[in-house]
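During the second half of the funding period, the structural biology subgroup turned its attention to how the target accommodates small molecules. The most pressing case was benzoic acid, which had performed well in the primary screen but for which no bound structure existed. We therefore specified the complex as follows and requested a full 3D prediction, including the ligand pose.
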Amino acid sequence: MSVNTISINQQMAHFEGQDSVWLFGYGSIIFKADFPFIERRPAHIVGWARRFWQGSHDHRGTAEAPGRVVTLVPQAGATCCGMAYLITPEVFAHLDHREKNGYLRLVTDIHFGDAEKAEGLIYIASEENAAFAGPASEKEIARQIFRAAGPSGRNSEYLLLLAQALRELGTDDAHVFEIEKHLLQLEREAAAEHQTAGGNGA
Ligand code: BEZ
C-alpha cells in the first residue's frame, strides 16, 4: 500500500559533516517532539500550505479505514507557520522511521521572524506517494477523521492537538480550524445521539 521511504531519506547527504540541522515541524512534530533537540523556535516557511491530504493507515487509521494527517503542498505566496527544532543528525534516523509512510526529506529555507533564516529540512508527502489522499472539502475531511483511529490513537485527537498547538503559536490556519469546527460538530451530534439512545433504553 505504501512505499517505505526510510532508505531514500537516509541517502540524503546535503547536511553531511554538520553537527546540527534545523528541522521545520508543521504537523505532529509541533505537539509531539519525541526526540532530543538542542533548541526550538517558532518559525515559518514560504511557498507551502499545510493540508490534511495525506492518508494514514499506520498511525491514525487502518488499511480498512485510513485517517488523514497533514502534508505540505506547494502554493505560491503561502506561508506555513510551525516550530523549528535544531537537532543532531542521529535524530533523523528516528524521524525517518516515525514518518516512513510516504514522507521524504526536502531542503528548504526556514524563517525566524522577518529578518533571520537558515537552511533546514522538512518532511513532505507529495502526491506521488501511494498513501496520498488528496483534496476534499473540509467537511468530508472532518467526517473521515471522526471515524478513524490507529496504533497512535484517534485521528480526532491528532487534529485537536494540532489545532491547539497552532493557536498557542498564534497562527490562523483556516483549513485546520475549519476541519476542527466540523469535527467538533460531529462529536456534539454523536454525543446527543448517544444520550438519546441511552435515554430510550432506560
Ligand atoms: C511535521 O510535523 O513536520 C511532520 C508531519 C508529518 C510528517 C513528518 C513531519
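Two results from this model are relevant to the next phase. The radius of gyration is 18 Å. The chain has a mean pLDDT of 91.
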